[in-house]
Specification:
Elements lengths: L2 H20 L1 E2 L2 H20 L7 H24 L1 E5 L2 E5 L5 H20 L11 H23 L14 H4 L5
Antiparallel strand pairs: 1-3, 2-3
Helix pairs in contact: 2-5, 3-4, 3-5
């Protein structure tokens, strides 16, 4: 991963944190589809790396993914959800910032462990997009059932449709 890509990831995370702290309409495509795309791009980046991925790399990345998913699920459970203008709206409390710090600390810690185990890919910045996708999907995996249980559909997309409304049985088509 180049320095430009690392800076882009940092900018995206700062943007996501800012939006979550201010609160925003939760649209299905942004909540579910965008993290899935991040995960796929991150996985392709892992596979396309010039260094051979070892079993130790895979193990370290798997541990990082479990940690990222756990933190994402916790973030999803902390998010305040409500219905605004007929759609889902969410805001993260300021105290949730420590979860972002825990995510960063876990990644740095796993990079150090991977370095000690000579897992070059896992010790690099290459898994960042993949792990961010895992984290965001885990948050969505908690937020989506919470909103369904409350009977609140995703906020409408810019074209007025509601993502997965026909499959989830709530919201407009």
């Amino acid at each position: 991963m180049s320095m430009l890509e690392i800076l882009a990831v940092i900018a995206v995370v700062a943007f996501v944190i800012g939006r979550q702290l201010m609160g925003e309409p939760l649209r299905g495509k942004r909540l579910i589809l965008l993290p899935a795309i991040l995960l796929v791009i991150g996985f392709v980046d892992l596979r396309g790396h010039n260094v051979h991925t070892t079993a130790t790399d895979i193990g370290c990345i798997a541990v990082s993914a479990v940690i990222a998913a756990g933190i994402g699920a916790w973030q999803g459970s902390m998010m305040h959800l409500e219905s605004r203008n007929g759609g889902l709206w969410g805001r993260m409390p300021v105290r949730s910032l420590w979860l972002w710090l825990a995510l960063v600390a876990s990644r740095v810690g796993m990079m150090l462990v991977a370095h000690g185990l000579d897992a070059k890919v896992a010790a690099s910045f290459t898994p960042l997009l993949f792990l961010l996708g895992v984290n965001r999907l885990a948050q969505a995996a908690v937020v989506t059932p919470r909103s369904l249980a409350a009977g609140v559909s995703f906020a409408p997309e810019k074209d007025g449709t509601v993502f997965l409304a026909d499959r989830l049985g709530n919201g407009r088509r």
